[in-house]
Amino acid sequence: MFWIFFVLLIFSNGDCILIDQITSTSPPSSSSTTSSSSSSTTSSSSSSSTSSSSTTSSSSTTSSSSSTSSSSTTSSSSSTSSSSSTSSLSSTTSSSSTTSSSTTAVPGWTTTGNMSFTRQYHTASTLTNGSVLVAGGYNGTYLNSAELYNPSAGTWTITGSMNAARQYHTASILANGLILVTGGLSSGSALNIAEFYNPSTGIWTTTGSMNTARYYHTASTLANGYILVAGGQSTSDSLNNVEFYNPSAGTWTTTEKMSFARQYHTASILANGSVLVAGGYNGTYLNSAELYNPSAGTWTTTGNMNFARAYHTASILANGSVLVAGGQSSSDSLNNVELYNPSAGTWTITGSMNVARYSHIASILANRLVLVAGGRGSSGILNSAELYNPSTGTWTTTGNMSFARCQYAVSTLANGKILVTGGKSSSGIAFQNTAELY
């Protein structure tokens, strides 16, 4: 009897509350987003998002990582490594520095273990074993450190460091399970260095360098397994040049340039395999959009967005449309949202977000709703979050994050939960090592 009473007492007083509900007055909806997916664009932020198209750019998104949902937003086991033109290794296997998970929760969000390092403008990639690899970033110092999140334990473990410290880079998952990191900014200079992470060994190996040093670019995984890197910024100028990486050869090949130089843009892989690039900045905020045809290696302009914007997100919905949300323009942060129809090549305005924001994240949930959270707005750095319902074209607020944050990274876990990591929480120096789950 005593033991039965003791067990009941523990469960009745337990403070471990995991909340994964949507606080919404509108009907359930479907959608998805950023930061990293099997074909993804990582804005050196994302991003990401995981989706059929994405690479984590420190923003859009996406994001560069993978998503388990049928759609995606603009961010595997190991096998043989790609050939590398430079064979330098940077070792260090996973070791110590494990942080325990906590369980303080707010509606929709649950805090989890803190990272070993504070960081912003890093990348986060979901590996095929379910772990999340976070790499690089900035916290007053350019970082080459990397760490792994274990979703089952809610803890972080340090793994091998990159050969080059960097922020504003992208991370892409290759077909063989390796993670390719490209470009970025280090000590005020753009990088052309590329390297890949082997999840089996915890080691980074340099591979062929890009033809052009760049950061704030996008990286998209094409159907043939190549990685298409587009635009960005060199040490001084916005770029329109484009190149792709061949994982088998470990080499980069230039392809046709975009019609417009751009950075802070998004890149989304459409159902037909084309890559849609939209918006960005090149001294002027852009509303232009263009399509890359991987078979022909050419770019074609398509319909312009209704609003010029940069630092926005782009999510591929289940019906193949691309949802672009928020961003920054010459008139500050935006709450307007629009949809791209690949069949017609046109953009249509849909319901506006409740809060104007940029440098936020967008992720597609298992129920196909699109979760948008954090970023910057007129009131500063945000912790608010909201959900887009593709069926109704409307937004509903959901629980706030535990921490306001921008310039952070997002990943979709195998169980469908959304992991957000790091970022900046105030306009002063307030880099985050916190992580939380939606």
Description:
The protein has 438 residues and is mainly beta. Among the domains are: 118-252, Kelch-type beta propeller (Neuraminidase), CATH 2.120.10; 256-362 and 387-394, Kelch-type beta propeller (Neuraminidase, 6 Propeller). Helices cover 3% and strands 36% of the residues. It has a five-stranded antiparallel β-sheet, with no helix packed on it. Strands 6-18-17-14-13 form a five-stranded antiparallel β-sheet, with no helix packed on it. Strands 7-8-41-40-39 form a five-stranded antiparallel β-sheet, with no helix packed on it. The longest helix is centred in the N-terminal third of the chain and has 12 residues, at 2-13. The chain is globular and about 45 Å long. The two termini are 39 Å apart. The model is unreliable at 1-72 and 75-106 (pLDDT under 50). InterPro entries: Kelch-typ_b-propeller (IPR015915), Kelch_1 (IPR006652). Residues 24-109 are annotated as: Disordered. Keywords: Kelch repeat, Repeat, Signal.
Fill in the keyword field for this structure.
438 residues; Neuraminidase; mainly beta; five-stranded antiparallel sheet; 36% strand
Summarize the structure.
By secondary structure, this protein is mainly β. It has 1 helix and 41 strands.
Could you give the topology of this structure?
Layout: H1 2-13, E1 40-43, E2 47-50, E3 54-58, E4 63-65, E5 72-73, E6 89-90, E7 105-106, E8 109-112, E9 123-126, E10 132-135, E11 146-150, E12 155-159, E13 170-173, E14 179-182, E15 185-186, E16 189-190, E17 194-198, E18 203-207, E19 218-221, E20 227-230, E21 242-246, E22 251-255, E23 266-269, E24 275-278, E25 289-293, E26 298-302, E27 313-316, E28 322-325, E29 328-329, E30 332-333, E31 337-341, E32 346-350, E33 361-364, E34 370-373, E35 376-377, E36 380-381, E37 385-389, E38 394-398, E39 409-412, E40 418-421, E41 435-437
Parallel strand pairs: 1-3, 2-4
Antiparallel strand pairs: 5-27, 6-18, 7-8, 8-41, 9-10, 10-11, 11-12, 13-14, 14-17, 15-16, 17-18, 19-20, 20-21, 21-22, 23-24, 24-25, 25-26, 27-28, 28-31, 29-30, 31-32, 33-34, 34-37, 35-36, 37-38, 39-40, 40-41
